[in-house]
Design brief:
With about 350 residues, the protein is of the alpha/beta class. Helix content is about 35%, strand content about 15%. A seven-stranded parallel β-sheet has the order 3-2-1-4-5-6-10, sandwiched between helices. α1 links the parallel β1 and β2. The longest helix is centred in the C-terminal third of the chain and has 17 residues. The structure holds NADP nicotinamide-adenine-dinucleotide phosphate. NADP nicotinamide-adenine-dinucleotide phosphate (NAP) binds next to α1, β2 and β7.
């Protein structure tokens, strides 16, 4: 039986990857710090929890044991993290370092976390220039991308069969920041209208955790040192996403398409980019990758997970609260109601 070890495997990516690999007959071990965070779903399907801090070399070595056919690192944020990964990768047939599309820069040096949004010429291939490697705080907007690039370089320069995977905005059950909540909550609150900035035309490519899991299985069978994008087969805009989520929850609302004259706090969404950000998936497809499904099919897992939690009173405390640093920005119902009431009939 082939064995997979997923570092930081009790979260969004680990959950989808474990389910896919277990279903395909793998033994799956996932590391984390807190056994209480082990998702019941994957434990019930046969995954094993291994307590190991990502920063502790001895604990990592113990988790690795005699080796693995597939090693996936969901917690590689810096060059130092990557250096800790190398000895483990030397004991794995195929290794995947989860990086991010945030490494890409446009012709003016703008990127996912720059003040000016990036403007790419078309779908982004893996040959697109990246930020320079850096070692400032990786938890900051300016440090996240440079540190990921530094980690990628350590991995790719090692000569080991490490595949760097660059996902975009990941969705799935178990997401720590479930972006679709901006529409799920509105649908559950039975809002009569949804406001969409820039006429809902913004596109930032989504990546289903289930599609990422499918890519991991492909890479397991094709070890190699390379970089692969990972995103859904389609790239819906914010308006499409609002419709898909509302449709899944059986809710209908008026779509209010705002233009550039609308107040800044109205109609914001996580996909509200002035220029499309789309990842080219040809390299993964050439390797044999086949997506698990398109956005509408795959996002159902996260929408149902959120809606079930809300209907049950959120016993596990997974739903973002009103003070959530990411979501507070998206829920100014009072401003929306004032705007809607002031419209000329
Ligand atoms: N989310 C996105 O949209 C997105 C987009 C592009 C790239 N990425 C990349 O995806 C990766 C994150 O994957 P994910 O979304 O699956 O993460 P996640 O949902 O946050 O899960 C990570 C898991 O790792 C465990 N963990 C955290 N710190 C740990 C440590 N020091 N030692 C051991 N375990 C630890 C956590 O459990 P405990 O707290 O119990 O230990 C958690 O369950 C990152 O590399 C990120 O850069 C994410």
């Amino acid at each position: 039986m082939p064995r997979a070890l997923i570092l930081g495997g009790t979260g969004l990516i680990g959950r989808a990857a474990a389910l896919r690999l277990l279903d395909a007959g793998w033994q799956v071990d996932v590391t984390g710090r807190d056994p209480a965070r082990m998702p019941h779903e994957i434990a019930a399907a046969g995954a094993r929890f291994v307590a190991a801090d990502r920063g502790e070399e001895r604990q990592l070595r113990a988790a690795m044991g005699d080796g693995a056919d597939l090693l996936v690192d969901c917690l590689c944020y810096t060059a130092a993290d990557a250096r800790l990964l190398l000895p483990l990768a030397g004991n794995a047939t195929s290794t995947v370092l989860i990086s991010s599309r945030a490494v890409y820069v446009d012709a003016d040096g703008n990127h996912a976390n720059s003040g000016t949004p990036p403007r790419f010429d078309g779908p982004i291939t893996e040959a697109q220039p990246t930020l320079a490697p850096g070692d400032m705080d990786y938890r900051s907007g300016e440090g996240y991308g440079p540190n990921k690039v530094a980690a990628e370089h350590v991995a790719l320069d090692s000569g080991l069969p490490i595949t760097v995977v660059r996902p975009s905005l990941i969705h799935g059950a178990g997401a720590a920041t479930p972006r679709e909540w901006v529409f799920v909550k509105r649908a559950l609150d039975r809002r009569g209208a949804v406001l969409l900035a820039h006429r809902g035309s913004g596109v930032v490519h989504p990546t289903a955790a289930a599609n990422l899991a499918a890519l991991l299985e492909t890479v397991a069978g094709r070890p190699g040192a390379r970089i692969l994008n990972c995103a859904d087969p389609d790239a819906p805009n914010a308006r499409d996403i609002a419709r898909i989520v509302a449709g899944r929850l059986g809710h209908a609302w008026e779509e209010v398409l705002l233009d550039g004259t609308a107040a800044e706090e109205l109609g914001r969404t996580p996909w509200d980019s002035p220029h499309p950000v789309v990842l080219d998936m040809s390299a993964a497809e050439e390797l044999g990758y086949q997506p698990a499904g398109d956005y509408a099919a795959t996002v159902a897992a996260e929408v149902d997970w959120l809606a079930d939690a809300a209907r049950a009173g959120d016993p596990a405390g997974i739903l973002p609260d009103a003070d959530h640093p990411y979501f507070g920005w998206f829920f100014d119902y009072a401003a929306e109601d004032t705007f809607l009431a002031a419209r000329t009939p």
